[in-house]
């Protein structure tokens, strides 16, 4: 069982308040301002209020024996596991465009150790998370399967060479290998099982909205036998 403490909850709230303001964040979560102010100021709170806040943030609260561990604490069941490195947490929001085409679902942010992100050279301010769509096939995409939690680096529109990318086409989110053989031309592969690679250019390319490079993918939550526990994406 993953340990969850009150300070972790306050850290998430502080990040949300910094982004939206106290009243704006309370409104976003559907909570009253006094509840959010009590959490921010470190006041004693009833357990019912804490449960209300946790549920509003899209997380779960489990009660059990205390655990003493230095390992980072995942903030939700499908959050990526990070190594035991001290440092602050960085909240990674769900990609707004991905949430829109997925019907507004899966919009809960995740939080990862900031030092862990810096060690990998990932620009924290450009990171977004998504959940792989039903069309994602492990046979074509390797470690990324339907339901996988993915972290995107959104600092580039399209790759300069070849990478695993997330994008929106025809009103649906897709994942695939994207290569750039020449300026203004991209080759897409793996976005559909058994589909041949396709070259896209000109007006057709302008109709595809890039989301970002997939730099990390984890096993789908509640998977009976995940391929692995998640890890950085490497391109051959």
> CATH superfamily membership of the largest domain, which one?
Umud Fragment, subunit A
Assembly form of the protein? single chain
Broad structural category: alpha+beta
CATH architecture of the largest domain: Ribbon
Sequence stretches where pLDDT stays below 50 over 5 or more residues: 63-86, 221-229
Radius of gyration, whole Å? 19 Å
What's the N-to-C terminus distance?
Answer: 36 Å
Count of runs of 4 or more consecutive helical residues:
8
Can you give the mean pLDDT?
Answer: 74
CATH level 1 name of the largest domain: Mainly Beta
- CA-based shape: elongated
Strand content: 15-25%
H/E topology pattern: HHHHEHEHEHEEEEEHEE
Proportion in helices: 25-40%
Number of domains: 2
Descriptive key words:
236 residues, 434 Repressor (Amino-terminal Domain), 8 helices, Phage repressor protein C, contains Cro/C1-type HTH and peptisase s24 domains, eight-stranded antiparallel beta sheet, alpha+beta, Umud Fragment, subunit A, two-stranded antiparallel sheet
Q: Which SSEs are present, and which pair or pack?
A:
Layout: H1 6-20, H2 22-29, H3 33-40, H4 47-56, E1 89-92, H5 96-101, E2 110-113, H6 114-119, E3 127-131, H7 138-141, E4 149-153, E5 162-169, E6 172-182, E7 185-189, E8 198-201, H8 202-206, E9 209-217, E10 231-232
Characterise the protein shown here.
- The protein is α+β, with helices and mostly antiparallel strands.
- The protein has 2 domains: 1-64, lambda repressor-like DNA-binding domains (434 Repressor (Amino-terminal Domain), Orthogonal Bundle); 117-232, Umud Fragment, subunit A.
- Helices cover 26% and strands 24% of the residues.
- The chain has helices spanning 6-20, 22-29, 33-40, 47-56, 96-101, 114-119, 138-141, 202-206; strands spanning 89-92, 110-113, 127-131, 149-153, 162-169, 172-182, 185-189, 198-201, 209-217, 231-232.
- The strands form 2 sheets. Strands 3, 4, 5, 6, 7, 8, 9 and 10 form an 8-stranded antiparallel sheet that branches.
- It is elongated, with a radius of gyration of 19 Å.
């Amino acid at each position: 069982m993953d340990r969850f403490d009150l300070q972790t909850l306050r850290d998430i709230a502080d990040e949300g308040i910094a982004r939206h303001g106290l009243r704006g964040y309370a409104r976003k979560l559907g909570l009253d301002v006094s509840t959010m102010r009590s959490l921010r100021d470190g006041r004693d709170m009833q357990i019912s209020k804490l449960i209300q806040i946790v549920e509003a943030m899209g997380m779960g609260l489990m009660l059990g024996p205390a655990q003493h561990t230095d390992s980072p604490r995942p903030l939700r069941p499908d959050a990526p596991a990070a190594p035991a490195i001290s440092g602050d947490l960085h909240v990674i929001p769900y990609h707004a465009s991905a949430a829109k085409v997925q019907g507004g679902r899966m919009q809960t942010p995740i939080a990862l150790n900031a030092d862990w992100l810096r060690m990998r050279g990932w620009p924290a301010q450009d990171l977004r998370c998504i959940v792989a769509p039903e069309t994602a096939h492990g046979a074509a995409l390797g470690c990324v399967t339907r339901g996988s939690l993915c972290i995107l680096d959104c600092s580039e529109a399209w790759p300069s060479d070849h990478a695993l990318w997330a994008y929106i086409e025809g009103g649906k989110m897709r994942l695939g290998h994207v290569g750039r053989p020449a300026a203004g031309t991209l080759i897409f592969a793996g976005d559909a099982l058994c589909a041949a690679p396709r070259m896209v250019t000109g007006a057709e390319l302008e109709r595809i909205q890039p989301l970002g490079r997939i730099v990390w993918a984890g096993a789908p939550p509640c998977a009976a036998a995940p391929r692995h526990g998640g890890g950085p994406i490497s391109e051959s």
